[in-house]
Write a structure and sequence with these properties.
439 residues; Heat Shock Protein 90; 5 strands; five-stranded mixed beta sheet; 2 domains; rod-shaped
Length: 439
């Protein structure tokens, strides 16, 4: 098995330039064997050279111990092995040195050059020694044996370690490449996991905001009308019992509608939450998003919910409800009415609905103008109210405000690529304008 990342770095525990202690022990053992071999071969070398045997032994021990640095300086080891080849010393050092040189990450031309020098040196030395043996009569073979022995010996001592070293080096580089690729993949997976967690958190926040906006749109308008009618009922209860009865009936109808819509919304959320817990592998809040959007878009009519949510054709009914609550409101339509995508019509309806709700809350009794313009590539709407007749009337009904109405309208319009503008007018009223692309 191979290690990756921090585990691979933690595996570097050897002394000096060795990666592991066992590598140091192996190199020390090879150096010891090579030193003993060269020391033993140094005795005949010293005898032939006319030197004391101790000089040959010391020379052999020093030369053979060069294998200790084979991983650090493989070129130096091969050069020493080539240098002592004429003395017929360092066969083990030459083989191990060529193997280490070929396995090292060195330019190919250096490996070929040194391997060629070792091959030629071994071939010359073998040729000379075999010829001398034949001249002394130690060998009685034909002349053909001299070049044959030189070539086969030099190839046998050079080619196998070089080829094996090239193979091991290529395999090592492949493993390092795979290790780096695994590390890169692990980092990418961690990054993807972090991004997925961020996207999930962002999706949860967006879902909370969307559900809050849907709940606000579903309930706020009807509850606001209920409060307005209740205030009117309190004012006329003794003076006009017939009108009080009518207002009470309207309050009851709107209250039942608001409760039904709220119960439907909560039921969808509760069932979606249970389904999400049962199916842990599903996308979080996906069922809630689809079901809650369907339930939240069903606000229309006195008999229940429209199957496809509110649309622009129901603006007359919406304005009629505001008029029944005592608001002086008129609707003007420009251009040829036509059908739009469901989300466009629902957004336009919600903008007008929320704007009328804000008039009920903050400018009760103010005259309001609703304008709808059908243009070639867009639909525009504007809700503008005049200053309220009595400044204190805005608080008479005591309607609370969460401050999210304008924010919700802006989010809806911008999500469809439209433009939303709101603010007070010079006359002291308030204007809400929105333009939504038709496609």
């Amino acid at each position: 098995m191979t290690t990756t990342g921090e585990e691979h770095e933690a595996a570097v525990t050897g002394p000096w330039w060795w990666v592991r202690w066992r590598s140091a022990v192996l190199d020390g053992s090879l150096a010891l064997v090579s030193a003993l071999e060269c020391g033993a071969e140094g005795i005949p070398f010293a005898r032939d050279a006319g030197l004391p045997a101790s000089v040959g032994i010391v020379f052999g021990l020093l030369a053979g111990s060069m294998l200790l640095i084979r991983r650090r300086w493989p070129i130096a080891v091969v050069l020493v092995a080539i240098a002592i080849t004429p003395a017929q010393m360092g066969f083990l050092m030459g083989i191990v040195g060529l193997y280490t040189l070929a396995a090292a990450e060195l330019p190919r031309r250096i490996i070929v050059a040194l391997a060629g020098m070792s091959l030629v040196g071994t071939m010359i030395v073998t040729f000379v020694r075999v010829r001398q043996d034949m001249a002394r009569g130690d060998l009685t073979l034909g002349d053909w044996f001299v070049p044959f022995a030189a070539v086969t010996t030099s190839l046998g001592l050079t080619a196998p370690p070089v080829l094996l070293g090239l193979y091991v080096g290529a395999r090592r580089r492949l493993m390092e490449s795979l290790r780096e690729r695994a590390d890169s993949l692990e980092r990418e997976l961690q990054l993807l996991a972090e991004r997925a967690e961020e996207r999930a958190e962002w999706a949860r926040n967006e879902e909370r905001t969307r559900i809050a906006r849907e709940m606000h749109d579903v309930v706020a308008h009807r509850v606001s009308l209920m409060v307005v009618h209740a205030a009117a009922l309190q004012a006329v209860a003794r003076k006009d019992p017939e009108k009080a009865v009518k207002n009470a009936a309207l309050v009851g109808d709107m209250g039942r509608q608001a409760l039904t819509e709220l119960r439907e919304m909560l039921g969808v959320l509760r069932s979606s939450e249970g389904q999400e817990r049962r199916e842990s592998s599903s996308v979080p809040l996906a069922a809630v998003r689809a079901a809650a959007a369907a339930a939240a878009s069903r606000v229309a009519g006195d008999e229940g919910f429209a199957a496809e949510g509110p649309c622009l054709s129901e603006l007359d009914e919406l304005i009629g409800q505001s008029a029944a609550a005592g608001m002086a409101v008129d609707l003007s339509v420009e251009g040829e009415p036509r059908s739009y995508a469901a989300e466009i019509e629902q957004t336009a309806y919600r903008v007008v609905q929320e704007a009328l709700t804000n008039v009920h809350k903050h400018a009760a009794g103010a005259k309001t103008h609703v304008r709808l313009a059908h243009r070639g590539s867009e639909i525009a709407m504007q809700v503008e109210n005049e200053p309220p007749p009595e400044p204190a009337s805005a608080s008479a009904a005591r309607l609370p405000s969460g401050g999210n109405g304008l924010l919700g309208m802006r989010e809806r319009v911008v999500a469809l690529g439209g433009v939303f503008v709101s603010g007070p007018t010079e006359e002291g009223g308030f204007r809400v304008s929105a333009v939504i692309p038709a496609s």
